[in-house]
Amino acid sequence: MSRPERPPVALRQRPSRSVAATICAVLLVALGVALVWSAVFRLTTGSWSQAFTEPFTWFSEQAWNSTAVWTLGALVAAAGLILLLAGVLPGRFHALSVRVPDAGGSSAHSVSGEPEAVMSRRAVAQLAAATCEHIDGVSSASATATDREVRVTASTALHDTRDLHRWVGEGVRSRLEASGLDPVPGVKVFIRSSD
């Protein structure tokens, strides 16, 4: 009996969502510290601190139908929904596809489906900057990359930068093509002439 074929899984890295996780962690740590401080205050003095009891007193004085309770409930529900969606929905594709050369034969341990390879946008930007730095006339270079475009900024001591602009653009474009990116992102070149 043969196993049913599963569809291949695309290499799509989810974003780390580290900012949202850091904000949640800081808020939870602050809440934990406040609760521990209140508990220690209660153990040492025999009564709860006023800062701890005031929110409970305020809640006990509110009616279920009051505007403040509805507003607070809506804010908490919205924050929960945003956090739930941030955890469930996949993020944008943050890598560029690379053509994989045909291996010629398949191994007995190979994965079913077509092989897939990607380069991160940071790797593409570093490749473009490194390529640019090896071009005559460029003293330093930096680059940023998106899914569709690579922006290269090169510094030079030359005053006439027309030829250098063309050389940098062609050099970076040919290096990105040679790396196997599919599709090759567009290249925008900015030259800064230092006097």
TrEMBL record:
InterPro entries: DUF6286. It holds the Pfam family DUF6286. Keywords: Membrane, Transmembrane, Transmembrane helix. It comes from the Bacteria. The keyword Transmembrane helix applies. The chain crosses the membrane at residues 20-40, 68-89. Residues 78-192 form the DUF6286 domain. This is DUF6286 domain-containing protein. It comes from Arthrobacter caoxuetaonis.
